[in-house]
Amino acid sequence: MTVRWKVRFFDYPLQFRLQEEEYTEIIRDVLSRGAFILGEDLERFEKHFAEFVGSRFAVGVSCCTDAMLLSLYAAGVGPGDEVISVSHTFVATIEVIRFLGAEPVFVDIADDHNMDVDLVESVITPKTKAIIPVQLNGRICSKMDKLVDIARRYGIVIIEDSAQAIGAAYRGKRAGTFGLAGCFSFYPAKLLGAFGDAGAVVTDDEAFADKIRMLRNHGRGRGTDINLWGLNCRMDNLHAAILDFKLAGLDARIKNRRDIARRYHEGLSGLDGLRLPPPPVEDGDHYDVFQNYEIEAEGRDELASFLRRNGIETAVQWGGKGVHQFSALGLNGVSLPRTESFFGKALMLPLYPELTEDQVSYVVRKVREFYG
Ligand SMILES: Cc1ncc(COP(=O)(O)O)c(C=O)c1O
Does residue 101 sit in the same domain as residue 193? Predict the structure, then answer.
């Protein structure tokens, strides 16, 4: 059946159309200068992004997966080490641990769908080298300060997977600034989306930033000398120019997302069978940026079909499975009851700044209709 969509889950062409002239001019400018690799646009974006996050350094790389791979490698994670993280995440968080020959160790999630920090200390062993908290759906883990304290006491580094949390804050500190490094994604659907893949590592540690800069560029420093084994994980200069332009409007777009989340919260609270993410608050510990609006819905598949029949597109994050539930990955012995139960009910409603008030009201009306 062909669906006549009233609310798309995401609308890339619309985003382009709304600022077509500006984007075309930026692309024309970069192309006419032939400034493709490691150009001044990249340096400018890195400076502005570091300022935005509240970090001393930002290094643009090819994607968040590479940001995490390089960060773990630069932190010395390798064979025999253990890295603590969650399974309510994209496979990228865990695959980089495995690619370095280390072992992922999972903890379950808390009520806000992020790492349950209270469980972390019980899985630390002498082999634990790093913790990757995943700041999912635009929210920093609750008790992030406790996690920082645990890591400090045990001499373990924190590498944040902040792919989904650009601009999110906890007690006034923005995502990416709690540990040795923060890793960001500029995948097109992200809060700050490039026109392709891109990512960044942020850190306050100058030597670490220098190392990431070399690792992303075949081990080179400023010249042609090779200082260490590296890779090619550079961010394209063209992406950097686009991202720098979009960064200037990011705070306004985040505010917009929070307004939509507030309307979802007000419209959908109190329905039996539905659990909502924490609402946006102004003066609390958390400043959430709502990369996604992920609800926990009884009858999730029926709700998704009902909404589809009514022209509303939804999505189930990562096909409805935690990383440990993909049998081909060989993590089958892992049991995470809260994560597994969550994935059985998780559904993402459309949430992006271009949504109109009418569209948001329509989604609210249809979800309410489904639950009678
Ligand atoms: C939580 C999380 N971690 C990591 C990634 C990987 O980011 P990238 O696609 O930029 O490598 C994503 C992107 O989808 C993500 O959502």
Answer: yes
